[in-house]
Amino acid sequence: MRLVIGIGNTLRGDDGIGVAVAERVAAQHSAPDLEVIACHQLTPELIALISQAEQVIFVDASVTQPSGSLQVQPLDPEQAPMLSVHHTSPSALLMAAKVLYGAQPHSTLITVGAQEFGFTEQFSQPVAEALPRAVRLVLSLLGRQSSEAH
């Protein structure tokens, strides 16, 4: 199974970009081995699902990069911070999947530079323009992993 997890709060402007990407990926790419989840934040309840995946792509907003820019980074479970019962990081979930289930899916984090986090359901212009690029990037990564598996 391949898994896409979009993270964010759709009521806080650019913070909802991960959710929007996940929703568009689900609408554009249906496959029996693809599961797409949109969530407000990462929680330990996702560990079991992550452990069943061959590939996991996380998509989230970032305040540390230029607005509208895309960054792709492979994730290493060994670089994980502590796991919290309320919310956690992608790497911490991957580490838990490794420890609890022996699972080590190929994992990537895509971040979109964000600037507007006020109470709005609208993206800033740079993030709105980045949305289709982020969707294409996720679809490309899904296609690449799928073709490598065959």
UniProtKB/TrEMBL annotation:
Listed under GO biological process in this entry are: protein processing
Q: Which Pfam families match?
A: HycI (PF01750)
Q: State one molecular function term (GO).
A: enzyme activator activity
Q: Which SUPFAM superfamilies match?
A: HybD-like
Q: Which CDD domains match?
A: H2MP_NAD-link-bidir
Q: Which InterPro entries match?
A: Pept_HybD-like_dom_sf, Peptidase_A31
Matching NCBIfam families, A to Z? hydrog_prot
Q: Name it.
A: Hydrogenase maturation protease
Say which species the protein is native to. Answer: Candidatus Thermofonsia Clade 1 bacterium
The organism's taxonomy opens as:
Bacteria, Bacillati, Chloroflexota, Candidatus Thermofontia, Candidatus Thermofonsia Clade 1
